């Protein structure tokens, strides 16, 4: 297929990125441009490429040798694996420019002169110098009185007003385009994508996400980004998001806030949601009680194998949480009735569905106490080859469970979500 020297950015999104030998490197997710002051054409700096590991990296545009209908070819298969970080004066086309508001002064479109228009796409073009620049902008007017979408027009760059760094920083930008990119993505990957964007853009996207989705994403952000997002929300919305978070993650986040602010949010939360969070906040964060979730998989001895397996299939449970079912006397809400033991997921799979869980309880597995140290929890998992363990109080009640994901979160450096390993293949230059 023939390479092209002009392309709309929205059509590039999702294209495979390959090296000169045809090896797959990743997929295009966005285009990084330099937004200049004045009327000069913005230069295209490079591509935001998503690797198979979901990390997004920067690939300089000068390394692009061909843009074809189904792929983008690079001059080298060696790229920097450092996470994409925007510098001052840079912007993502799909992440920031698309859906921003502009005006046009095109003499051929005089009827649009005073209309507030939305950017729907951006065309880039390669010049004779091999540099790529933004050449045209596709814009759309407001919806008609009948609710139909406005007509789309493609305007030369020099007739577009308002695409500046200061304009992109104004509130009220749409988010439909960028939200469509997040469909089907894991919460951790959405969190990585959000971290590439300025605070203002993150806040707009957060406002558009529903409470459950936003809660999942917030849990995957570094602490500073969590508190920044929460701090820009109305307190009622912040309380709703905290309610939707896992209690242990909500407790960790509230622990980073001033006491008065944390208490105000707890007061706004539903008492049933805030009560386990308050209990978790009583424990030191580097103990089993501070690490645990208060919502493990709990059943009674009279539960059938079929029902226990159905509970384990709950998509809201992490694989680690689903690996171990805890058996107690009623009540089953933490703190539960008397703790009897646990059943491993493999044991459930080996039993006839109609049998009762009470017949296969493992009551010999040692327990964790709420004051057990991080080191003791680590040794516990290593000794018994577990990814989940029960936390029992002095009265023999199950009060929660520690899972390996929460343990790793505390064993890794505090800024592990913000840093990458030293695994660069080469240093990319802009």
UniProtKB/TrEMBL annotation:
Entry keyword annotation includes S-adenosyl-L-methionine: no
SUPFAM superfamilies reported for this sequence: CBS-domain pair, MgtE N-terminal domain-like, PRC-barrel domain
Ribosomal protein among keywords: no
Residue span(s) of domain CBS: 361-419
Gene3D superfamilies, per database record: CBS-domain, MgtE N-terminal domain-like
CDD domains membership: CBS_pair_Mg_transporter
Keywords carried by this UniProt record: CBS domain
Gene Ontology CC annotations of this record: membrane
GO molecular function: magnesium ion transmembrane transporter activity
PROSITE patterns with a match to the protein in the record: CBS
Taxonomic superkingdom: Bacteria
Pfam families (UniProt xref): CBS, MgtE_N, PRC, SH3_actinomycetes
Protein name: Mg/Co/Ni transporter MgtE
Species assigned in the record: Williamsia limnetica
Lineage, broadest ranks: Bacteria, Bacillati, Actinomycetota, Actinomycetes, Mycobacteriales
């Amino acid at each position: 297929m023939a390479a092209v020297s002009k392309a709309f950015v929205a059509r590039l999104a999702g294209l495979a990125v390959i090296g000169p030998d045809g090896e797959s490197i990743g997929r295009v997710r966005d285009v990084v441009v330099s937004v200049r002051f004045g009327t000069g054409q913005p230069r295209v700096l490079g591509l935001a490429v998503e690797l198979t590991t979901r990390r997004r990296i920067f690939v300089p545009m000068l390394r692009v040798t061909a843009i074809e209908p189904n792929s983008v070819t690079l001059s080298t298969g060696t790229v920097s694996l450092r996470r994409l970080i925007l510098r001052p004066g840079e912007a993502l086309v799909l992440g920031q420019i698309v859906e921003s508001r502009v005006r046009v002064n095109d003499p051929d479109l005089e009827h649009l002169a005073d209309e507030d228009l939305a950017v729907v796409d951006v065309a880039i073009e390669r010049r004779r110098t091999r540099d790529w620049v933004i050449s045209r902008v596709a814009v759309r007017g407001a919806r008609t009185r009948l609710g139909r979408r406005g007509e789309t027009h493609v305007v030369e760059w020099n007739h577009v007003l308002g695409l500046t760094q200061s304009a992109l920083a104004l509130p009220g930008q749409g988010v439909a385009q960028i939200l469509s990119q997040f469909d089907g993505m894991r919460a951790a990957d959405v969190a990585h994508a959000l971290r590439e964007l300025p605070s203002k853009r993150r806040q707009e996207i957060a406002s558009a996400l529903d409470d459950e989705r936003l809660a999942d994403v917030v849990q995957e952000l570094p602490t500073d980004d969590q508190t920044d997002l929460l701090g820009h929300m109305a307190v009622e919305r912040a309380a709703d998001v905290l309610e939707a978070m896992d209690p242990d993650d909500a407790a960790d986040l509230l622990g980073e806030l001033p006491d008065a602010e944390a208490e105000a949010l707890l007061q706004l939360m539903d008492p049933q949601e805030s009560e386990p969070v308050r209990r978790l906040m009583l424990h030191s964060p580097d103990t089993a009680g501070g690490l645990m979730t208060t919502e493990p998989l709990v059943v009674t001895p009279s539960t059938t194998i079929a029902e226990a397996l159905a509970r384990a299939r709950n998509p809201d449970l992490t694989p680690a949480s689903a690996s171990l079912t805890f058996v107690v006397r009623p009540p089953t809400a933490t703190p539960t009735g008397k703790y009897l033991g646990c059943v491993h997921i493999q044991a459930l799979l080996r039993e006839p569905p109609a049998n009762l869980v009470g017949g296969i309880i493992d009551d010999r597995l040692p327990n964790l106490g709420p004051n057990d140290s991080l080191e003791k929890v680590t040794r516990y998992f290593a000794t018994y080859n577990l990814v989940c363990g029960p936390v029992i109080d002095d009265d023999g009640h199950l009060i929660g469970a520690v899972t390996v994901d929460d343990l790793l979160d505390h064993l890794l450096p505090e800024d592990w979500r913000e840093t990458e390993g030293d695994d660069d293949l080469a240093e990319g230059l802009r």
